[in-house]
Amino acid sequence: MESYYVPEIADNVFWVGAKDWNRRLFDALIPLPEGTSYNSYLVKGTEKTVLIDTVNPGFEKEFVEKINKVTELEKLDYLIMNHAEPDHSNAIRFIMERAPKAVLVTTKKGIGMARNYHEIPDERVKIVGDGDLLELGGKTLRFIEAPWLHWPETMFTYLEENKILFSCDFFGAHTAQGVYDEDIEDLIPMAKRYFGEIMMPFSKMGAKALEKIKDLEIRVIAPSHGPMYKNPERILGPYRKWTAGESEKKALVVYASMWGSTEKLVREMAETLLSKGIDVRLYNLAGSDLGDLARELVDSRAVVLGSPTVLGGMHPLALQGAYLVKAFKPPIKYGVLLGSYGWGGGALKQAAEMLAPTKIEVVGTLQVKGAPKEEDLKEVQRIALELAEKMEEQ
Fold it and tell me: How far lies 79's CA from each of 43, 56, 72, 124, 173, in Å?
């Protein structure tokens, strides 16, 4: 048996999750430069024992050994499913087969997912809603529904005596580093990246969740990914800004360029914006990390998208960039579309169509044939000055 570290985060409250040090991709989409963790928590009362969430596929053996360091798995009374996504719920059936008296605790929306994913019979499911309590003997759990953070069945679990909020994906960060927030100096950029990737499309629901918990006394925030927060305000403060859609005087400039023409346009744009005091973040999509783009989208006020035309439409990388802007629903107010073509245009038309459903005001567009000429660069400067002026008004 391996020796596993099982930290006791409060009296009879333990972290029994797993650290995935080597994972480098999530959802076949999101890069994980520092891996991630799948946080599970065990709470022991004088009468009942509860497990909160489980772990990703492949960590079942380690998971069981950690639980058994604290208590006998077979005697587990409850398993709480804060969220049904497999990285948190995959081991539910595995655990309940080994804990024959355990009851799964979930929301009304979660029961269907428990049936579909894990084939849990109804007699082993307890449905809870906002404000419902679960008494463990000296430990009281209160349930707080938090739908669409980021699935419809999500809830938080609050341990009243120890003032711990088990928040599932909300307040999370994809990193295997550290146990507590104090262990990672640059944690907030990681959390911002995570928010952009996962929570930004659900910012309105996030704001509602923050309102629900605003009067709770919280000593520790225990999310399902990344370190736990001994200083809750370290993450609560940024989340208030991010869910409110507060933006900075910052422009995210993203582009693809095949022969350098589009790149010349976006660099002229970037230099002009910089000269007007705008914070510019420039990314060539040919080598950029999607997570970095998501992080920058969280509080950018403008986006500049550059794309050459490829077979009558956008370059595939720029197409993905435009899709992310549309899908992530960032607080972007203004946009600029720049592009080039050799024998036929079409990229900017497609980009405009993609962004049409958003509330982004397109300040200017410019598409050039071949390499940009001096008058083209002057037009870019003019558009940049107009964009900078609008960004100042915010």
Answer: 10, 15, 14, 10, 23
Contact 270, 280 (CB under 8 A): yes
Decide if 179 contacts 173 (C-beta within 8 A). no
Work out whether strand 313-314 and strand 361-369 pair parallel, antiparallel, or are unpaired: unpaired
- Among the listed residues 299, 296, 301, the one whose alpha carbon sits nearest the alpha carbon of residue 388: 301
Write out pLDDT tens, residues 278-313.
Answer: 999 999 999 999 999 999 999 999 999 999 999 999
Crossing angle (nearest 10°) for helices 261-275 and 374-393: 40
Amino acid found at 202: F
Q: Which candidate, 58, 70, 169, 153, places its Cα nearest to that of 105? A: 153
Considering only CA atoms, which of 391, 327, 286 is closest in space to residue 199?
A: 327
pTM as predicted = 0.95
Contact by Cβ (8 Å): 6, 16: yes
Q: How far apart are CA 296 and CA 87, in angstroms?
A: 26
Q: Report the b/e string of 105-137 with b at 16+ CB within 10 A.
A: bbbebbbebbeebbebeeeebeebeeebebebe
Torsion (CA) 273, 323, 20, 168 in degrees, nearest 10? 100
Cα–Cα distance, 280 to 249 (Å, whole number): 9
What are the tens digits of pLDDT across the range 217-269?
A: 999 999 999 999 999 999 999 999 999 999 999 999 999 999 999 999 999 99
